[in-house]
Specification:
Keywords: Membrane, Transmembrane, Transmembrane helix. By secondary structure, this protein is an all-alpha fold. The protein is about 75% helix and about 0% strand. It folds into two domains: about 5-55; about 70-130. It is built from four helices and no strands. Helix 1 packs antiparallel against helix 2 (about 30-55) and helix 3 (about 70-100) packs antiparallel against helix 4. It is flat, with a radius of gyration of 21 Å. It starts with a helix and ends in a 10-residue tail after the last helix.
């Protein structure tokens, strides 16, 4: 079986185990088993996602050699920064609405903190990407 097929099967099994673990939360002490199953499912899902990147089982290099064109890398960085700048005002608006409408200020303050962090980190990521563009012919993120 190829690493890609094995990875997909491991990810599907991880999702099924996580659903099973989530249903166990409603049965008292079985919730502890459910939490352990969810942790195991998360690990299995991550391993499956990693296996999907391998070309063959004989390939022992890490990270898997998937070269990326510098122009494509810049496009990905630019799109993620634009996405962050689009999501941040929505989060800040939601935070203000939550602080006005909710009796408790903490949910709104938490969302406001996340929104401001998104703005700050998005600007920092964009400035870093402008300052340090990929220069090689092939760049592995």
């Amino acid at each position: 079986m190829s690493p890609r097929v094995t990875g997909i099967l491991a990810m599907v099994a991880g999702i099924a185990i996580a659903i099973l673990g989530g249903t166990l939360f409603q049965y008292g002490w079985a919730g502890i088993l459910g939490a352990i199953l969810i942790v195991g499912a998360s690990i299995l899902f991550a391993i499956g996602a990693t296996w999907m990147l391998r070309k063959s089982w004989a390939d022992k290099t890490w990270p898997p050699s998937r070269p990326m064109d510098p122009a494509k890398a810049r496009r990905i960085m630019r799109r993620s920064a634009v996405l962050r700048f689009c999501v941040a005002p929505l989060l800040i608006g939601w935070a203000v609405a939550a602080m006005v409408l909710e009796p408790s200020i903490w949910p709104g303050a938490l969302v406001l903190t996340v929104g401001i962090w998104e703005l700050f980190y998005g600007a920092l990521l964009l400035l870093w990407a402008i300052e340090h563009p990929p220069k090689e012919n092939f760049w592995t993120p």
